[in-house]
Structures are given as C-alpha cells and as structure tokens.
Amino acid sequence: MSGGQSELPRLLTAAETAAPVEAVDVVAEYLRRCFGATEVSFLIVDLTGKSVARLSTSDTAEGGREAERIPMPGSVYEEVIRTQRLYRETTGRGQRVIVPVTNRGDAIGLLELLLPAGAGDDVLDAVGEAGHVLAYVVIANGHFTDLYIWGKRSRPPTLAAEIQYQLLPPSLSCEAAQFTLCGSLEPSEDLSGDTFDYTLDHDTLHLSVTDPMGHDISAALAATVLVGALRGARRAGAGLADQAHRADRALADHGHGHATGQLLRINLHTGRAQLVNAGHPWPLRLREGAAEEITCEVDQPFGLAALASHPYRVQDIDLRPGDRLLMLTDGMLERQGEQVDLLDLLERNRNLHPRETALMLTSAVRDAAPGGRLEDDATVMCLDWHGPQETQRHVSSGADVRQASPAARSDS
User: Fold this and answer.
1) Who's near 233: CB < 8 A, 6+ residues apart?
2) CA-CA 20 to 30 A from 118: which of 10, 39, 168, 267?
3) CA distance 74 to 69
4) Has residue 155 got a pLDDT over 90?
5) In terms of C-beta density within 10 A (0-12 exposed, 13-18 middle, 19 or more buried), how is residue 391 classed?
6) What's the CA gap between 37 and 28, in Å, rounded?
7) What is the per-residue pLDDT for 371?
8) What is the pLDDT of residues 162-209, one digit of tens each?
C-alpha cells in the first residue's frame, strides 16, 4: 500500500488476529491511523442488489441485529457500484469518499469514510487499495460468521428460501479474461426452486440454470438433489451428457419430480461452446446490437429417466467474441414475464455490465407482476464472451472499470 509495502501484511495479520466479526473494524482502524479518517463504515450490498446495509460490527458482536438499510436506486452508492469508481465530495467536515469493495467483479459492498480536506490523490489511491483488501477480508471471514450473510438480507427468509439461497454460487458475479458473468434470482412468493451455478477450471467455464417443478419446501428439496447431482458429476470430471444423466437419475431415484435445466460448457482456449437442454427455454444472444433466441434441440426434463427415449444430446452453439448470452428460466417468459420484451431490453441496455443487466431484467419481470408479486421465480444468467484471445484481466483493483456500467441510469 501507499504507506509502505510492509503495511499490507501487517493489515492482513491484524485482521487474522481479530475475531471474524471484528475484521472490518481492523481495516477501519488502519484507515484512521494512517490517513486521519474520522468516520469509516462498510456497506454491504443486499441480495436483491437494490439496497445496502451499513454494518456496525461493534453492535452486532454484542448480539444486535440492527443496521441502517439504504435504497440504492438514484443514490451515490448505486453510482459507485455501477461504475466501480471512487466517489468524493468536499463537505464542511472534510472529504467524503466512497470506494467499491469488489472481488473479481463481484460487488460485495462499499467503503465510506470522511478524510481530512487536504487528502491528496496518493491517499485516495491507498483508500481504494484498502477497499480491495477489505473484499478479501470479508470473503475470508464470511466462512466463520453469519454477520455478512445477515447483512445481505433485508428480511428473514423462509426455510425454502434459506435452502434456495445456499444453493447459489458464493459470488453472483465473476470477471475473467475471457468472460464476464452474473446471475440474478427474483424469488416468487412461494419459492419455485430456481437455481443457477457456475465454476471455472483451467480451461473450461461451466454454467447451469435449473427449474424444478413445485413450490416451497418441495421445490427447495428437489433443487438440492438436482444441484448436488450436477456438482458431484461435474467435480468428478463427467462430460455434459453424463452430468445431465446423473441429474436425471438423482431426481427419479429420490422421488423429487422433474425439473428443466440447461447446462453450458465453454472451452476458454478455443471458444467452443456446448450445451445440453433438458426441456428448458432457449437461451438468448445479443450480437452486434441485435438480440435473438438461439434455437436448439430440446431433450426431456431431468427426473423422467423411466420415460427417456434417447440420451441427452450435447450440441454446439455459435458463440463469438463480443456476444452476450442470456440463460433464463420460464418465470422470465410466462404469466407476468410475457409482458416484458426481453429482446428489446437486451438491445437497449447493451452498455450495462452483466451485473446490472441481470438485475434490470429480473426487476422488469417483477415490476410487471400485479403488485410486484411473482407467481414463479424469475432467474437469469448473463454472460459476456470476450473471446479466447484474451488471456489477462485489465484491472488495478477488484473490477475492470472498462466493462463497468455508465454512471447515468439507462432508459429501460
């Protein structure tokens, strides 16, 4: 850090020494000591992506469950999350500074502080670095405390919702050299069990979107069996067709009905994209400003093993550098979703980062529902494919600001 290279290991050691719920306070104390910050707070992004919670670790460490929750739309917090750039303004008490707390494109939250009026660019650079370090501190300590999970939730979840949230990947967004992606799930009133998943290995990106039948706890249990089967098969090195077959058998063998799903695998070195479609809606693709459905062969849903007339087919799909790919569940298309022109929204909002794109699309479907109450989960995964020719991320912190959304809100 700007205060000397020895500051960073000392800061990480101090965070490791502190209790998990006090790790953020260690970073705050570092900023007070090194740069004269008089106020420091960490704001974590809610699971909905529509608000932030200002966490007070000293209060919650004593059992409190209070936090100031601030709506993001139209706020300076939304601007910092969207642009992934530092914000500062001069006040009568000093400089108010807000920096993103982001890891590999996953916007965890914000670091807000009040600095002396004379703080220069070198101090602001160091504060930005501290925000990046804080992202790692939060991720690491999140393994040992519920504090940060609690901060992400604006209301207590039902049992079905708790199960469903635990099935999602730990980070909803990911930036890599060859791609950027983000998923968003807008749950219905009686949870329908939608899930999405992704993982990255040396040469392959794996993605999936699934939608079990049923609602509430039955859908959550079916989703648990389904996601567990898919992850287990994938981690064992199974190919796409075998992953689909194992998911099919798992649902059938355990009597959890059936589910539609889509599995996608992309070779990071060649760009070859292969897909299995198990009774699921077709993906959408935005190419050179024009959006369209990608027609593909549709096999039987998972869980109907006794009725299977042929094995799951692995299909090549046309994916080129610069494409945006959208995988979605039928909650985006049926009932209230059919009132939303997804293709038009993709075309008109092509300058948004996948993080804002995914949120914008699921929010549009929710807003189209009577009273904003969905009858079915609305889920999307948005993938920007940069191409196999890209081998290095272009970053100096937790996000590639060249890919970030513009500050001005898009007209959607």
Assistant:
1) 242, 243, 246, 247
2) 10
3) 15
4) no
5) exposed
6) 8
7) 87
8) 999 999 999 999 999 999 999 999 988 877 899 999 999 999 999 999
